[in-house]
């Protein structure tokens, strides 16, 4: 197993009922300590061991007495989920298929780049949005992920990237996991409370310590929660726009029927903290002959005018049976030029991890396929 586990051999055969400390915030850790008759100030130490040092064995908590360590170990665990598959792309992208305790599976993707390493984190199992071009959208929602299951994705990535500080390497200067995008499976704003709890743990400077400036939450446009997200979490906002007319957006991003473009864009205009140094990212998937005309590009510029923004053009990533094709490179370039000439940075996202089905919109497919093949054994 690639990670350490503090359960003894004997316990591994029984179901370990101890609550997991992963997913608990400071408050919950205080309560956990009070429950075993310990002062709440210890919560800060516990929080650091769990989230900053990444220990999974209470015996490594050297500033705690032996009796406290065993009290903690009797009552709680610090565990990691099972990795059912660990795939590496030829471009260095990693995809971990994580098996949750109820048998469901989620995917987490690590994308290394020259100046950063980004982890693409899932917020739900499946999705309810049914965006026409997205593979995850063809799979029904199974359930929301808990704060524990969201935070565990980061813990798993740090384990595998060997990125926990040690006594001889106390801080991390060049992090392989420096940024987080809530762009995996699911719609994070439809699981707002759990996502918020998880992000607060992740952003805490004494723990995983990834600042809100390095976190981006992507939404297809759950308008009523956009402001709250900015006020309460202050993370960067990405909006899956994909179409500039309600008629088309109703069809390819059906949440538009509930929250049409005008409402979505005014929520973007009012996003707390938005300014030039903190732009909103508009994601725009390039679908051949569907949304990629020069008239579309001009309408896009008109729609977002006045919003400090950047437009990420995502060449469509096909999946088996997908009803669309990727726009050709020349079309994408001409589209980008119109957007750039209007003063908006408009990078074309290089597909990463396509060979392991880890690119945008391809998640969950692997595990689903697997299930179909094995279904007769379940
Ligand atoms: N539900 C959220 C989080 C998902 S983010 C949201 O919609 O924003 C994943 C991003 O990849 C979204 O912008 C999504 O629209 C985009 N995407 C989905 N399928 C894709 C595909 N096949 N090719 C390229 N991008 C895709």
Bound molecules: S-adenosyl-L-homocysteine
User: How many separate helices?
Assistant: 12
Global outline:
elongated
Question: What distance separates the N and C termini?
Answer: 24 Å
Number of strands: 11
Summing up helix and strand content along with how strands pair, one would put the structural category as alpha/beta
Mean pLDDT: 90
What level of helicity do the residues show?
25-40%
Q: Looking at CATH, which topology of the largest domain would you report?
A: TIM Barrel
What is the highest CATH level, the class of the largest domain? Alpha Beta
- Total of domains: 2
Poorly predicted ranges? 1-12, 369-378
**Strand coverage percent:** 15-25%
Major sheet: arrangement of strands: 1-2-3-4-7-8-9-10-11
Fourth-level CATH superfamily of the largest domain: Aldolase class I
Order of helices and strands: HHHHEEEEEEHEHEHEHHEHEHH
Provide structural commentary:
- The protein is of the alpha/beta class.
- The chain folds into two domains: 17-75, Orthogonal Bundle (DNA polymerase, domain 1); 82-373, Aldolase class I (TIM Barrel).
- Helices cover 32% and strands 15% of the residues.
- The chain has helices at 9-13, 26-35, 42-52, 66-75, 147-160, 192-203, 223-232, 246-252, 261-269, 294-303, 329-341, 365-374; strands at 82-88, 94-99, 105-112, 117-120, 124-125, 143-144, 179-182, 215-219, 236-240, 280-286, 309-315.
- Strand 10, helix 10 (294-303) and strand 11 form a beta-alpha-beta unit.
- Helix 2 crosses helix 3.
- It is elongated, with a radius of gyration of 22 Å.
- It binds S-adenosyl-L-homocysteine.
- S-adenosyl-L-homocysteine is lined by residues 129, 131, 133-134, 183, 187, 218-220, 240, 283, 285, 314, 316-317, 360-361.
């Amino acid at each position: 197993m690639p990670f350490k586990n503090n359960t003894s051999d004997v316990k591994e055969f029984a179901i370990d009922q101890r609550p997991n400390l992963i997913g608990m915030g400071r408050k919950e850790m205080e309560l956990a300590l009070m429950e075993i008759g310990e002062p709440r100030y210890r919560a800060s130490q516990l929080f650091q061991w769990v989230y900053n040092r990444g220990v999974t064995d209470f015996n490594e908590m050297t500033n705690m007495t032996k009796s406290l360590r065993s009290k903690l170990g009797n009552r709680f665990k610090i565990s990691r989920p099972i990795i059912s598959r660990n795939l590496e792309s030829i471009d260095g992208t990693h995809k971990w298929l994580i098996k949750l305790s109820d048998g469901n599976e989620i995917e987490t993707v690590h994308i290394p780049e020259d100046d950063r390493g980004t982890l693409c984190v899932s917020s739900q199992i499946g999705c309810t949005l049914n965006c026409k071009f997205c593979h995850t959208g063809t799979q029904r929602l199974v359930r929301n992920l808990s704060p524990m299951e969201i935070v565990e994705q980061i813990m798993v990535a740090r384990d595998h990237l060997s990125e926990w500080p040690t006594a001889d390497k106390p801080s991390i200067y060049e992090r392989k996991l420096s940024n987080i995008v809530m762009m995996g499976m699911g719609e994070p704003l439809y699981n707002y409370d759990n996502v918020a709890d998880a992000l607060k743990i992740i952003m805490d400077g004494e723990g995983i310590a990834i600042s809100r400036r390095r976190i981006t939450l992507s939404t297809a446009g759950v308008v009523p929660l956009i402001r709250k997200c900015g006020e309460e979490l202050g993370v960067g906002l990405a909006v899956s726009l994909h179409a500039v007319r309600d008629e088309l957006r109703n069809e390819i991003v059906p949440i538009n029927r509930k929250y049409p473009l005008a409402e979505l864009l005014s929520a973007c205009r009012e996003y707390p903290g938005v300014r030039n140094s903190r732009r909103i990212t508009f994601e725009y998937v390039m679908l051949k002959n569907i949304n990629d005309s020069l008239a579309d590009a001009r309408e896009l510029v008109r729609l977002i005018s006045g919003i400090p923004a950047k437009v990420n053009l995502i060449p469509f990533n096909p999946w088996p049976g997908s009803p669309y094709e990727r726009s050709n490179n020349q079309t994408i370039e001409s589209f980008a030029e119109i957007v750039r000439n209007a003063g908006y940075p408009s990078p074309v996202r290089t597909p990463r991890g396509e060979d392991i089905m880890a690119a945008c919109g391809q998640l969950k497919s692997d595990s689903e396929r697997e299930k179909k093949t094995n279904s007769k054994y379940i």
